[in-house]
Amino acid sequence: MALLIHLLACAFGLGSWVAVNGLWVELPLIVNTLPEGWNLPSYLTVIIQLANVGPLLVTLMHKLCPGRLKEPVVIVFILCVGVLSCVLLAFFWDRTSVVAGRTASTAFFILTFFLSLVDCTSSVTFLPFMMQLPAKYITTFYIGEGLSGFVPGVVALAQGVGIAKCVNSTGTPAGNNTDGNLWSLQAEYMSPTFSTQVFFFLLAAMMVISLSAFFALNKMPRTYEVSTENLVSEDGVYVSSGLDNPGAELDGEAVKSKGEGEGEGEAQSRPRLASADYSVCQTVFIYSVVLWINAATNGLLPSVQTYSCIPYGNLAYHLSAALSSVANPLACTVAMFFQNRSLVFLGLLTALGTGFGSYNMAMAAMSPCPLLQGSVMGEVFIVSETLKMLRKKSVCVCVCVTRVSCQSAAQWTLSLCKYS
């Protein structure tokens, strides 16, 4: 039973950010088709940030109407919206319309907003539901949330990209009645392994897997436990629910021992919290680093990635997008086993990541003629610099969280989530 719940929790976490991550890794195939062209990532960044209205509404509901909002109902609703949006994207992602005299990808933008709304809202609805389970399943949930970036990246790598090759083309010059032909070289794009439509159907299937896992978790038999940990008042005892909770017997013994000796029972049952051994200046520095690296990797760099990568070719852009999605959770996982809480180490990583990001920004500013254009070395540099920036970002977040708190759940929260 425990193994089954671990698998379900991982599958449930897969649906948290899989749609938005899938959009980013599919951009190399979309950007050459939609009328926005190289500006498409900038539009996508703004739309995703606007979708944060979802978490804001959920927070206001909890504040203004406590107890009225039911997380299971919201989860089912947003996952159904996600599945429907992915299916509609498969059919209408390339449909355009005229807005204010300009051709725009209206259908793509609208459906992208709903997908972003689903993923952003999942951050404040999935976790409260998972808190009903024992802590060991929450860690598994965060592993699944990390896979929401890893799996689309692997699928995108298997899909490939439409690489252009030069082919000879013949034609007769206009107004020339002779038998002479005009030879020229034209770009011909090779088809990927499967189409963009199939990719969006795969995203919909991943969302269906997450929805099915949620239904299974919600239908699991629950056991109730009595906890003696006083979170609100000294005299209050609350009841929490969990699935197959191994701590129920321990808490029951704690309650019994509390009746025999209240002081000894509380000492045995109350968990020890991490001590705050950092000053105000250190805390400000840590959160400033988190603010900077998230602003750079979630807003600044993705919006100009087309300008920094496409001049080196579609393959370079494709590898940057797909490998970044794969490398981010891998780097976070490795960082969890090699923890370093030194603020000097944190500052060094931040400086290195900023340097790599600055190289990408410089290449974007020099576009369409960046350094080493047309050479293999240039393609290797732009892909590796993107990956290095994201790896440094991942490790920095892990260092920040482990510096602030030693709680394992908090570590997985910030390390395996790609977007915040």
UniProtKB/TrEMBL annotation:
Instruction: Report membrane topology.
Output: Multi-pass membrane protein
Q: Lineage from the top down?
A: Eukaryota, Metazoa, Chordata, Craniata, Vertebrata
Q: Which Pfam families match?
A: SLC52_ribofla_tr (PF06237)
> Which of UniProt's keywords are assigned here?
Cell membrane, Glycoprotein, Membrane, Transmembrane, Transmembrane helix, Transport
- Which source organism does the UniProt entry give? Cynoglossus semilaevis
Tell me which GO cellular component terms the UniProt record holds.
plasma membrane
Where it mainly occurs, coarsely classed, is membrane
Q: Which GO terms describe its molecular function?
A: riboflavin transmembrane transporter activity
Function, as annotated: Plasma membrane transporter mediating the uptake by cells of the water soluble vitamin B2/riboflavin that plays a key role in biochemical oxidation-reduction reactions of the carbohydrate, lipid, and amino acid metabolism.
Per UniProt, subcellular location reads as: Cell membrane
Highest taxon listed in the record's lineage: Eukaryota
Catalyzed reaction equations: riboflavin(in) = riboflavin(out)
Which stretches does the entry tag as region Disordered? 243-270
Record field: transmembrane: 42-61, 73-93, 105-129, 141-164, 198-217, 278-295, 315-338, 345-366
Coiled-coil regions listed in the entry: none
User: Which protein, by its recorded name, is this?
Assistant: Riboflavin transporter
Q: InterPro entries this protein is in?
A: Riboflavin_transptr
Similarity remark:
Belongs to the riboflavin transporter family.
